[in-house]
Amino acid sequence: MGTRKKVHAFVRVKPTDDFAHEMIRYGDDNKSIDIHLKKDIRKGVVNNQQTDWSFKLDGVLHDASQDLVYETVAKDVVSQALDGYNGTIMCYGQTGAGKTYTMTGATENYKHRGILPRALQQVFRMIEERPTHAITVRVSYLEIYNESLFDLLSTLPYVGPSVTPMTIVENPQGVFIKGLSVHLTSQEEDAFSLLFEGETNRIIASHTMNKNSSRSHCIFTIYMEAHSRTLSDEKYVTSKINLVDLAGSERLGKSGSEGRVLKEATYINKSLSFLEQAIIALGDHKRDHIPFRQCKLTHALKDSLGGNCNMVLVTNIYGEAAQLEETLSSLRFASRMKLVTTEPAINEKYNAERMVKNLEKELVLLKQELAIHDSLANRNIVTYDPMDEIQIAEINSQVRRYLEGTLDEIDIINLRQIQEVFNQFRMVLSQQEQEVEAALRRKYTLIDKNDFATISAVQKAGLIDVNGHLVGEPDGQGFGLGVAPFSTKPGKKSKSKKTVKDPPSSSARKEGASSPVSGKDLDMISTSKTQLVPSSKDGDVKDVLSRDRETSSIEPLPSDSPKEESRPLSIIT
Ligand code: ADP
Ligand code: MG
């Protein structure tokens, strides 16, 4: 997690000969601005209304050159974008206060060029200074007018909205405008001619569509993708810088407006107040829902307001007394913006193809390294490739021979072989478990462990000892395993055959008590849910099991046993 950072809010005051000195005062540190309103100016206003305001900002730019403005507000944002941080620079203010001058500047005069051409220039200069990276730059220019999206860099003659209207799309990577042309620019001149084309389209549109350009929002976006030229580096970074020239923020009096102007004013008021609502929500840390989707402007800027980007606001104001109401409203917007915090983070991505190639290379190197080690240790014919079926079958046979005792040890060759040996051990073991269970099933009557009626019948019949000789709880819960009356020793035959139908004698129960098969013993063979119910017959399961364990193999139980029908034990499963 990165550290939270406040949005930087600057105020730029448009130079004027008619500056209202008595009303506008700058703080000594150039970071605050005080407004004093003389009461007599606000005729008809109740006397107790506020007349003094103080706004704390990150800088007040008055009589500042375009150069100084760029250095102060944009330089760091642009330079950090090359390291993978998104950035947003936004100009807000009433019409004529200098937003477009700040953002685009006077194109005919190099000295007066604004943030946009300077940002492009800085981007390409920095690319030159980073020969270690291959950096691609793309640009797009979007205009939002009366809630419609326009592509200012559309290759078609600029006549209005494209045939397929553009839409704002959200995906896990962020927000993008479907249908908006994005242009690859390999050098500064290309980027400048695109910017020029966009500006021209903006002017043409204002004539052909009878559109007031100060009534639209314009978003110029520079997208960057930086790949290291070092082939081993599979990481790359992406970023975008949004340079936003907002529509004039002045509130047009509805009474005087009609037709086009009224429509524009309605849209502008709506989108700027939605922007303000989003900003207020972003500044309120208790709010978890930010209303971005209420209008095109906030929706298009969803991942560029707040979030993980470096954000800067320039509030353009007039310094004249006549504009003080609008100036106050613009400064209020700036101080709200200052409450917003963002969490700038690098947009780091991985190039999967390069990653695989690097891993393959690494593998080849490690195999070579291993081969050297083997030859130094005189271990010549060792391969490290995956095992084939024949090799696996050989290991299986070794494991079986080892378990039978015909092979004393298994030579260790390499890690892959050790893993296969363990694997084969597991397979043989599970095979044997199944064989044991199958053998038990063949030999004994099985009773469902949850079939309490049968269990109780068996208990009643005296085949199992309810007094604890049979492992098991009276309520059937956690029913254990055990052998109740049981008279035989291995190889000996019981005189009393005990089956469900043939209850054991009390003496048999007594004998059984002295030779229980513990639950543990049976757990060993994984006959889960299996219960042994005592009966009598030659040999017992314990014996079979211990013999199995000793030899690690199951000898088939004689199915042709003459006493087959009277099995020594019953198993409840
Ligand atoms: P906005 O875009 O806010 O409506 P503009 O940027 O178009 O306003 O500015 C209106 C006029 O004022 C333009 O002719 C512009 O050149 C001029 N202007 C604005 N700010 C400055 C400034 N800081 N220095 C010189 N001229 C400026
Ligand atoms: Mg403008």
Question: What this model shows, in words?
Answer:
It contains 14 helices and 20 strands. The longest helix is centred in the C-terminal third of the chain and has 29 residues, at 415-443. It has helices spanning 66-81, 99-103, 115-128, 188-208, 259-283, 296-300, 324-338, 352-376, 389-404, 415-443, 452-460, 506-513, 519-523, 541-551; strands at 5-6, 8-14, 24-26, 32-36, 52-56, 59-62, 87-93, 133-145, 148-151, 167-171, 174-178, 183-184, 217-228, 235-245, 310-318, 341-342, 347-350, 445-447, 531-534, 569-572. Strands 2, 6, 7, 8, 9, 12, 13, 14, 15 and 17 form a ten-stranded mixed β-sheet that branches. It has a three-stranded antiparallel β-sheet with strand order 3-4-5, with helices on one face. Strand 3 (24-26) and strand 4 (32-36) form a beta hairpin. Helix 5 (259-283) runs parallel beside helix 7 (324-338). The two termini are 55 Å apart. It is α/β, with parallel strands linked by helices. The radius of gyration is 43 Å and the shape is elongated. The structure holds adenosine-5'-diphosphate and magnesium ion. Adenosine-5'-diphosphate (ADP) binds at residues 14-15, 93, 95-101, 106, 214, 248, 316. The site of magnesium ion (MG) has 4 residues, from helix 2.
The small-molecule ligands in this entry are:
adenosine-5'-diphosphate, magnesium ion
Number of strands: 20
Q: What spatial form do the alpha-carbon principal axes imply?
A: elongated
Instruction: Please work out how many helical segments DSSP would assign.
Output: 14
- Could you say which structural class the secondary elements and strand pairing correspond to? alpha/beta
- Overall mean pLDDT: 78
Uncertain spans: 471-530, 534-573
Strand content: 15-25%
Protein name: Kinesin-like protein
Organism: Marmota marmota marmota (Alpine marmot)
Biased composition (Polar residues): 525-534
Biased composition (Basic and acidic residues): 537-552
